[in-house]
Sequence to fold (324 residues):
Amino acid sequence: MRKLLIILMGALLFFTACDRTKPPKKNTPQPTVTLPAFDNDSAYAFVKAQTDFGPRTLGTAAHENCRIWLLGKLREYCDTAYNQSFTAKTYDGKQWPCANLIGSFGPEKTKRIVLAAHWDSRPFADHDPNPANREKPIDGANDGASGVGVLLEIARQLHENQPDVGVDIVFFDAEDYGPKESESVPGDWWGLGAQHWAKKPHIEGYTANYGILLDMVGSLNAQFMQEQFSLRDAQDVVRKVWSTAYELGHGQYFQNKPGGIITDDHYYVNKYAPFKMIDIIHYDAASGTGFDPVWHTVSDNIQHIDKNTLGVVGTTLLQVLKNE
Ligand code: AHN
Ligand code: ZN
Fold:
């Protein structure tokens, strides 16, 4: 033991003596601010961890296992985490056990920002070019998991580096059980988890300054045009996010043009909650659906996720939080 100590001390002395390249420590300025960090690989791993469960469609073991895993991650990174259980009644007359998952930073703070995404995946690939696939559930790597992956990485970063503003990360369930393309059922069948939370938040009387929803934030060379309900309801928030992205050099992704009109989770938050939410969503005017060509097909899998896009969105959001 003693011998080992002497060898170790000798080695330490040797390496210290050899290190003549660095200037003396005491004159080295110490950084006073920490730059927002976002690890693209980590975000990608969080997306893959979700798709590895299989399609997270209502009523499946994959859905339940993923819920437990997500809640564990929120408990690990956030100050407080909530599991808001509810029953979703879908357009086909079925009922499902569901859960919105919420992780809060600085729960005592009054100035708050909500960051949201949906964590369920669609039970039928009704837009698949192959009719044989149209009853199959989808991995939803982009449609669902991408937004959740970015937000988990943000939570991991905020755990290391708390923002001044309060932050609530909300994972909505039952977003994507809307009627199939071939059916037409009147009613509000999309965004069931968001509708529930907006009418009955996890804390009575809860409100926030504003919210940002992420949906399909993993496409290669994504284009985030300004979604039109977001412009209608919270133009100031759209401006803030898009100008922050521009200043970070992400103007190619965040384009200053109006995009689609999308009945996404934010639409229901804006309808029922006491604050407004915008939607960051990839818009592809040329695809026919307005979304990524693999949208609601069995090809919406991890192979079509670009980690740089996850990084562009995550870095922009961290900077928005830092500026508050
Ligand atoms: C439709 O416009 C049909 N759906 C928008 C909501 C959505 C579905 N986002 C992802 N999947
Ligand atoms: Zn969808």
Strands lie at 80-89, 95-105, 112-118, 166-172, 210-215, 224-226, 254-258, 277-281.
